[in-house]
Amino acid sequence: MNSYFRRVLLFSFILSILVTLLVYMYIGKLGSKKETQQLVKVLVANTNIPKGTVIEKKMLREIELPKESIQQGYIRDYSLVLGKFAKENIIKDEIILLGKLQGEKIDELSFNIDENYRALSVNVTGDTGVSYLLKPGDYVDVIVFLSEKRENNRVVRRDIAKVILQNIKVLAVDRNMTRQNNPKDDGKVPTRFFVTLQVPAQDVEKLVLAEDIGKIKLSLRANKSTDTINSNGTVEADFFINKEEKYIYYKVKKGDTLRNISRAFYGHPDNYDLLKEINNIKDENIIVPNMIIKIPVSKK
């Protein structure tokens, strides 16, 4: 019996030694593999790079990564990247790949539309399209005119003009997507031409409906203008406002409220309801900096 237990103990001892050796050999193999792992320098984005952007050195940085873990097409040399255009959005810390770069500016319209926007063309004339002076990259407001509407010999809507879209980017005029003059331009204003606009996705239906049931005009904005106007529109009666009354257009500042604005113009906050009604503001708390509101005042 004692002899049996001795054999069992000896076998267990030998087995434990073998297991220990195997573990050490495995760890040593991992260490050796790590030591021989080849690291390479690659270029990654130092910031978010929107599609169509010209790549500059400050947008990039170098990091080292195991070669076997890197996707094919990585870039190590700045000279292969600088001055190229991003074919698609590149996010911060993303490895720069050749497939995401373009040697020349991408003129395909779909590559020049911002996320959550749509390209929509409107048919205009010289008098509704700023006399053919618009260029891609300009910004416009869209105004719709709706003629009087009657039902059962009753007027249910008077003639009205209203700004429906503001600060809308011009993507193309006819088929021209650059600011360079068309060599075929003879200086004459075409009878009709197309202007392609970059419209927020949620406003596409609004513009389509406006063009179908009314007449639209484009109003060119000043360069770098970002202000917006909150208006109920203009009807004929607005032409005949009492001479003793007028409107002031006020640009909202950071921290403004309708009550504060009422206090500033009327000496008390109680006219905030009037400001809400005139400017069609449903929630008095939702006014933002640079919004322009209409304030009725009296001349004295």
Report on the structure:
By secondary structure, the protein is an alpha+beta fold. The protein has 3 domains: 64 residues, Antifreeze-like/N-acetylneuraminic acid synthase C-terminal domain (Type Iii Antifreeze Protein Isoform Hplc 12), CATH 3.90.1210.10; 117 residues, no CATH class; 62 residues, LysM domain (Membrane-bound Lytic Murein Transglycosylase D, Chain A, Roll), CATH 3.10.350.10. Helix content is 20%, strand content 29%. The protein contains 4 helices and 15 strands. The strands form 5 sheets. Strands 5, 6, 9, 10, 11 and 13 form a 6-stranded antiparallel beta sheet that branches. A hairpin with a 2-residue loop joins strand 7 and strand 8. Helix 3 packs across helix 4. It starts with a helix and ends with a strand. The model has no long low-confidence stretch (mean pLDDT 84).
What are the defining features of this structure?
6-stranded antiparallel sheet, Type Iii Antifreeze Protein Isoform Hplc 12, 300 residues, alpha+beta, Membrane-bound Lytic Murein Transglycosylase D, Chain A, 3-stranded mixed sheet
Rg of Cα set? 34 Å
Low-confidence stretches: none
Mean pLDDT: 84
Integer count of domains: 3
Q: How many strands, which pairing sense, and closed or not: the largest β-sheet?
A: 6 strands, antiparallel
Q: Percent range for helical residues?
A: 10-25%
Structural class comes to alpha+beta
DSSP strand (E) fraction? Answer: 25-35%
What is the number of helices?
Answer: 4
Order of helices and strands: HEEEEEEEEEEHEEEEHHE
**What's the total count of β strands?**
15
What shape does the CA trace take? elongated
Pfam families: LysM, RcpC, SAF
Protein name: Pilus assembly protein CpaB
Keywords: Membrane, Transmembrane, Transmembrane helix
InterPro entries: LysM (IPR018392), LysM_dom_sf (IPR036779), Pilus_assmbl_Flp-typ_CpaB (IPR017592), RcpC_dom (IPR031571), SAF (IPR013974)
